[in-house]
Design goal:
The structure holds 2 protein chains of 2 kinds. By secondary structure, chain A is mainly beta. Helices cover 0% and strands 58% of the residues of chain A. Chain A has no helices and 11 strands. In chain A, strands 2, 4, 5, 9, 10 and 11 form a 6-stranded mixed beta sheet that branches. In chain A, strands 1-3-8-7-6 form a 5-stranded antiparallel beta sheet, with no helix packed on it. In chain A, a hairpin with a 2-residue loop joins strand 6 and strand 7. Chain B is mostly beta strands. Chain B contains no helices and 11 strands. In chain B, strands 2, 4, 5, 6, 9, 10 and 11 form a 7-stranded mixed beta sheet that branches. Chain B has a 4-stranded antiparallel beta sheet with strand order 1-3-8-7, with no helix packed on it. The chains are: A mainly beta, B mainly beta. Chains A and B meet through strand 5 of A and strand 5, strand 9 and strand 10 of B.
């Protein structure tokens, strides 16, 4: 059983479309992280959030602690958004549970 | 700041060889960790450290050793490489808000 489940696994969108990636988790958490891994392999931390919503440019992350669910939205998607998006939640120690990622391809 | 640096970027080993993957960060972060990433499995924690002189095992520690003699450096040692250790390895450090990942080391064990 995975503590963190992401959906969809793969997503293809046309440029300009609104994109939603979902993350559900089964453990109690203090915060949730969204990471972005580019085709070259580098991983960047996008958001850490513990409640409500955060926005950075065209990226919006929301979390519902009661429902144990988070979403990552991309508005006006662009080919440079093509990447793998990974949801991660910390456990009670110092470790993370990672989702297996959502591979996003945005077509011009 | 250079952030988190890792060397080498690529490495090929023969079964039984040993090597050390280097990781350094210049952000004065106490928490550092090593992950491996395999297709379809996501990132898995190998070892982590919450400060100089303190290390602990993660989810998949077998076959790997770590040490943390300084805040900046957190090397990962493969004692006797096995084909099952073929993977991409990421080092990361963390502050209270974000995790910072190194560029990764692609290791192949033949």
């Amino acid at each position: 059983k995975n503590e963190v489940e992401q959906s969809p696994q793969n997503l293809t969108a046309q440029e300009g479309e609104f994109i939603t990636i979902n993350c559900s988790y089964s453990v109690g958490i203090s915060a949730l992280h969204w990471l972005q891994q580019h085709p070259g392999g580098g991983i960047v931390s996008l958001f850490m959030l513990s409640s409500g919503k955060k926005k950075h440019g065209r990226l919006i992350a929301t979390i519902n602690i009661q429902e144990k669910h988070s979403s990552l939205h991309i508005t006006a998607s662009h080919p440079r958004d093509s990447a793998v998006y990974i949801c991660a939640v910390p456990n009670t120690g110092n470790q993370f549970y990672f989702g297996t990622g959502t591979s996003l391809t945005v077509i011009p | 700041n250079a952030g988190v640096t890792q060397t080498p970027k690529f490495q090929v080993l023969k079964t039984g060889q040993s090597m050390t993957l280097q990781c350094a960060q210049d952000m004065n972060h106490e928490y550092m960790s090593w992950y491996r990433q395999d297709p379809g499995m996501g990132l898995r924690l190998i070892h982590y450290s919450v400060g100089a002189g303190i290390t602990d095992q993660g989810e998949v520690p077998n076959g790997y050793n770590v040490s943390r003699s300084t805040t900046e450096d957190f090397p990962l040692r493969l004692l006797s490489a096995a084909p099952s250790q073929t993977s991409v390895y990421f080092c990361a450090s963390r502050d209270g808000t974000h995790s910072y990942f190194g560029p990764g080391t692609r290791l192949t064990v033949t």
